[in-house]
Amino acid sequence: MKRRTFIQNASLSSLGIVAAASVIGCKENEIVKGGATSNNSESTIPVVIATWNVPNSTKKAWEVIENGGAALDAIEQGCMVEEANAEGQSVGIGGLPDRDGNVTLDACIMNKEGNYGAVVYLQNIKHPISVARKVMENTPHVILAGKGAEQFAYAEGFQKENLLTEASKKAWEGWKKTSEYKPIINIENHDTIGMLAIDKNGDISGGCTTSGLAYKMAGRVGDSPIIGSGLFIDNEVGGATATGLGEEVLKTVGSFLIVELMRQGKSPQEACEEAIGRIVSKNKDFKDFQVGYIAVNKKGETGYFSIHEGFSVTKHSEKENINIPSKFFNKA
Ligand code: SD4
């Protein structure tokens, strides 16, 4: 099949993302209850929580908050740690490229006032989370894309950098031999950062930063920089952020949904479970892709839930900086 035909035929459900063997054979459309851990129902303020195993990022964010800093600064600095980590292949420098070999980054940030800034399809800039913050603070807009975002970043003093590391270039060259679009659940996407923080004043901010899905089509933008999908904050209620197959998060406006469910009285855990339930009940192919959500409410209670096993969160509270495996929907 010619590549063009392949792309046309590749509906989201047929992208061929491989599910872990341990998750086959679940009961469809049944939400697994009892997902909350003791860490979840505990009210902890301040708190920092992020998708995946990113202890250095949560540690940095926590340090900012511990020193009396605002949640917004904690989010930016925490996310920057992973963006600068060249070994992480799904965010910032070292991110896996699109199928043409270009590393294109998506990021957004949202503050306690409900202000928001984002960059999509940004190239050659290591810290998209910081450019997103500049969009929020220094422009009359909320999203800048592609070349315009890049020009804006240079005008704001950011340096041009080559983001394609040797390791990611090698991986891409290996992928090109078959050009099959088959990312593997939890493997290639393990360190995209969605981060939520509550500072000592009890104010909430959040951020999300990613290189998106490896070997995506040129021009593709995921959920991560889109308000309400990859991230949403309402300082009176709480915040939520997402990771995984962005197309499915976008179609259900997942993070906004979770915050609205919390507004209606659900706990962060219940809200994350319902948002995952929304995806799986609408999509019989959910065995082929992963989505994970994390949430925090105004009381400092947290929640996290995913479709499949393998998702985890890193949570920094007064007590500890700990990586916690998430409960998941798709029980064997
Ligand atoms: C995307 N949601 O671009 C992102 C990818 C991701 O962990 O989160 N990976 O669809």
Automatic annotation (TrEMBL):
Name the UniProt record assigns to this protein: N(4)-(Beta-N-acetylglucosaminyl)-L-asparaginase
PROSITE patterns found in the cross-reference section: PROKAR_LIPOPROTEIN
A GO term, aspect molecular function: hydrolase activity
Source taxon at top rank: Bacteria
UniProt GO cellular component terms: cytoplasm
Active site: 192 (nucleophile)
Pfam family, one: Asparaginase_2
CDD domains according to UniProt: Glycosylasparaginase
Classification via InterPro entries: Peptidase_T2
Highest classification ranks of the organism: Bacteria, Pseudomonadati, Bacteroidota, Flavobacteriia, Flavobacteriales
Record-annotated site: Cleavage: 191-192
Sequence positions that bind substrate: 220-223, 243-246
